[in-house]
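Hi C.,

You asked whether I'd gotten around to modeling the 130-residue construct. I have! Everything is below, sequence then structure, no commentary in between.
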Amino acid sequence: MRRRPAALGTESPILSVARHVNLGLAFVLELAVYVAVALWAYLTVNAGRWLKVGSALGAVVVMAVLWSLFGAPSATVSLADPALVAFQSVWFALGVLALVVTGRRKLGIALAVLTVANLILIYHWHQQQG
C-alpha cells in the first residue's frame, strides 16, 4: 500500500525535531568556534596569565562582532547567499584552524565535519533566515 504525501504545510514530527536539533547544533558549533579561538589566543601569547586571558577575550570579541555583523540570522549587514556562505565558511574554518594549530587535530576534524553537515542542512531546510 502506498503512503499518501503529507498535506502542504505539514511535516512529520521526526522531521520537525530534526530541524530543531539542527538549529541547536548550529548554536553549539558557534560556541565551539569561540572556545577554539580563545584557546588559540591563550596558548599563542607568550606573556603573563592576564595578557593571555586578555588576548583570549579579545579574540572572542572580534569573532563575536564579525558574526553579529555578517553571519548571524539577524546580522547588521545582510549578505546575499553566496557571500553569506563564503563568510560562514571562512568563520568556521578559523575555528577549525585554531584547533588544529593548538594540537587538537581530531577536534578540528570533528568541528569541520559537523559544520559542513550542519550548513548543508541549514541551506537545504532554508533555516538561514532565523
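If it helps when you're writing up: The chain has a mean pLDDT of 91.

Thanks,
B.
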